[in-house]
From TrEMBL:
GO terms for cellular component: membrane. GO terms for biological process: signal transduction. SUPFAM superfamilies: P-loop containing nucleoside triphosphate hydrolases (SSF52540). One of its GO terms (molecular function) is GTP binding. Residues 223-235 have a biased composition (Basic residues). InterPro entries: P-loop_NTPase, Small_GTP-bd, Small_GTPase, Small_GTPase_Ras-type. Keywords: GTP-binding, Nucleotide-binding. Residues 199-235 are annotated as: Disordered. The lineage of its organism: Eukaryota, Fungi, Dikarya, Ascomycota, Pezizomycotina. This is Similar to Protein ras-2 acc. no. Q01387. It comes from Pyronema omphalodes (strain CBS 100304). PANTHER family: RAS, DI-RAS, AND RHEB FAMILY MEMBERS OF SMALL GTPASE SUPERFAMILY.
């Protein structure tokens, strides 16, 4: 008999070129994308087991370019938890993180689902910079990607921790290339969402399905719209 799985809708945000797609594909397809291919919108699904519970992750990889700000509002409205990504080798991508964070809060507050950006941080000894977000807040993970680029580092780990404290969110450095802390970045957002739902928040279910395996990608990869070309024409394929 199938096991009912909960659906978690995660959105990956950040500047262009910081490795949002690389992190997403490393999580869902278990390989590293070497070339930079600007994305407008690309959706993935993966069945996983987190802390003994089967769940379905729907991960939306998004564009970081300024011209897609209006589209970003819709992506944020549709999302439940967020992964904010910067590159440790790009200070400009780091300094733009508060803009993405503020946009999340603005959109969620207008929808009646936001929380105070500073109310969540209350434990300086937590695993990440942020503590456990309070009920009603927006689950957000700040990720300093490309931690493998040691000699090109422009943003220190301490600065990442400090920004996470300021924004009241979780923090981890990761490497999509070396598959370091990739699952942790996404799974912690799911844990935060689960805590909110256990207190009485809304639940999403995919219906029925078998318990997931962390290494197995299931479901469908959505259409990928690339910048330029014939007006963002989408291509689709299915992951078996």
């Amino acid at each position: 008999m199938g096991t009912r799985m909960t659906l978690y809708k995660l959105v990956v945000l950040g500047d262009g070129g910081v490795g949002k797609t690389a992190l997403t594909i490393q999580l869902c397809l278990n390989h590293f994308v070497e070339t930079y291919d600007p994305t407008i919108e690309d959706s993935y699904r993966k069945q996983v087991v987190i802390d003994g519970f089967s769940c379905m992750l729907e991960v939306l990889d998004t564009a970081g370019q300024e011209e897609y700000t209006a589209l970003r509002d819709q992506w944020i409205r549709d999302g439940e938890g967020f992964v904010l990504v910067y590159s440790i080798s790009s200070r400009s991508s780091f300094t733009r993180i508060p803009r993405f964070h503020n946009q999340i809060l603005r959109v969620k507050e207008s929808a009646g689902t936001g929380g105070s950006p500073l109310a969540n941080y209350n434990n300086s000894n937590a695993m990440y910079s942020g503590g456990s977000p309070a009920t009603g807040s927006v689950p957000i993970m700040l990720v300093g990607n490309k931690s493998d680029k040691v000699t090109e580092r422009e943003v220190s780990t301490q600065e990442g921790h400090a920004l996470a404290r300021e924004l009241g969110c979780e923090f981890v450095e990761a490497s999509a290339k070396n598959c370091v802390n990739v699952e942790r970045a996404f799974f912690e957002v799911v844990r935060l969402l689960r805590r909110q739902r256990n207190v009485g928040g809304p639940r999403r279910n995919t219906g029925t399905g078998d318990p997931g395996d962390m290494g197995a990608a299931q479901g469908a990869r959505g259409g990928k719209a690339k910048k330029g070309g014939n007006g963002g024409k989408k291509r689709g394929c299915v992951i078996l």
